[in-house]
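Notes to self after the Tuesday call (sharing in case useful).
The group wants a holo model before anyone commits to mutagenesis around the pocket. I volunteered. Ligand is iron/sulfur cluster. Logging inputs and output together so the record is complete.
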Amino acid sequence: MHTHPEILAPAGDMTALQAALDAGADAIYIGLDTLNMRQGATRNFTRATLPDASIRCRERAVHLYLTLNTIIYEHEIPACQNLLAFAKPYIDAAIVSDWAAIAACKAHHIPFHISTQMSCSNSITATFLKQQGASRIVLARECTLEEVTQISHQADIPIEAFVHGAICLAVSGRCLLSHEAYGYSASRGECRQPCRREFFIQERREGDNADAAFRVEPHTLLSAKDLCSLPFVDKLMHAGIAAFKIEGRARNPEYVKTVVTAYKTAVAAVRSGTFTPQLVAQLTAACAEVYHRPFSPGLYYGRPGSDQFADTDLNQATSRKHHVGIVLNYYQQAHIVQIQIQGHPLAIGDNLSIHGPTTGVVEITVTNMRHDENSLNHAPKGTWVTIPCKHHVRLHDKVYIILPAT
Ligand code: SF4
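Result:
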């Protein structure tokens, strides 16, 4: 029997959150600026933006979860307790891994989910965590499909599993590479991802026939491919998973929109009996347009072989966005947007992506372009144009052109 899984989207900022809402996410997870596994990211929510995020989610009956899943050190106990007390009115659950955070959730009567950082990998652990008050378990990313199925059928607690996004070679951050190399700890959400980089082996001895250097090939030999579960969404639904988690709080709003849309479509297709290889190919191609490493089935079909590792860390997206400019005005009655072109020029037929914290991500094709009364086929940098746009966009929204990756 197939479940109807919650599609759980990442959001690193308000634009991504709005994009997730517009794409139909059932729930969204965010971090505030401390104590979460993306605290080093350029994007994050703050105490000032959390209330707005909460209002937007509640208007759509979408759940909002706060990620607070780092190790909590002794001196951080007050910060952890204060953060949870502050967040309580705005969130539906916290995603935690440290027992101090669990104790704080229990003290404040905040529902909590067990983060993948706790590496829950069996039904006895899941049941035990339920007895401690957990309302959901995010399984370890290393569980196979067979293990996920057994756990979700045998443990009496909803199970969440990652379906899409980056995979860490080191059991979700149990790795000292980043700390050793740069002083930023993966277990503190600060990983600088040295596993994704290129290495040389340098001989340390000097003198004749010494001082050799070798490039390590493939240069990203520690860099795991990204997970893409679209080809086996039906099997994941059959496994009884309650929530499909999309990784990527550090990724762009268009990534959130595209991937949420793909998994919503796939789940709906399974339920309506229209889940076909053609649809999988179409949805995978859509996800390939936005930022990703080479795709793989992750660890769902067993322990990784050498083909689980990427031989490149270059973005594999089949399309790229380039900065065009900003929105100067939106004429609601006429459905016209005025754009100041500050970068890439525009032409009829161009595909644009307009991003903003209230707008989310809006995609339009330039069907008509004017400057005052003049119709234009091309518009250079430095001018402004008006373009039909049936979606409401806003002053200062960012405008990008989407071009094939070269
Ligand atoms: S360096 Fe790579 S393997 Fe290590 S924690 Fe970071 S992402 Fe994972």
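Two things stood out.
The two ends are 44 Å apart (CA to CA).
The chain has a mean pLDDT of 91.
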